[in-house]
Amino acid sequence: MNRRWTFVLVTILILWTGVVLYFGTRNAVVSSRQARWAYDILKRIDQMLDLSETELFVRIKNGLNKLWSGDRKMPTVELVRKSAHFGLYMVLGIVSFWFAFAYSGKVLMAVIVSVSLPALVASLDEYLQQFRGRGASLNDVMIDVSGAVTGTVFCFVVFTLVRLIQFFLSKKAQQRKEA
Q1: How many domains, the chain?
Q2: Domain containing 117: what range?
Q3: Which intervals hold domain VanZ-like (predicted)?
Q4: Residue 84's pLDDT band (boundaries 50, 70, 90)?
């Protein structure tokens, strides 16, 4: 693929990894304040739109709670924090996929990199949190990796759809030439 795209994507990858590690290395007080701030904004939006009482919202909340904490009932502010983990690493998985594909031109390599690189960053992030007054959590690493896998699956589906559309358009053009 184009060297310029590879350069742009590696730059985005480095910057986004920096963002992920920045949030991960905030001390416990700052991290709690950030989660509370996001929770308060979401609560205000919910008060305007009244979404939290809908059946879909309750099902999603309960499903995420069960998936991410098992039988333990997770406070909503903690669910917001875990969702942020998931989202940050989903974006990291997406950027990693397109970087690896731009660099290698191979889908399999893109899939491998877009799962393994975020998993490495997640492990490093949890390790570094120990030095900032926060505990390391294997559960958080699993949430992070599940975000990266979700981003990877999304990219793979988009890639496959684009290739199928290209295939059918070229086949149609070939049939027009023959006719």
Answers
A1: 1
A2: 3-178
A3: 10-157
A4: confident
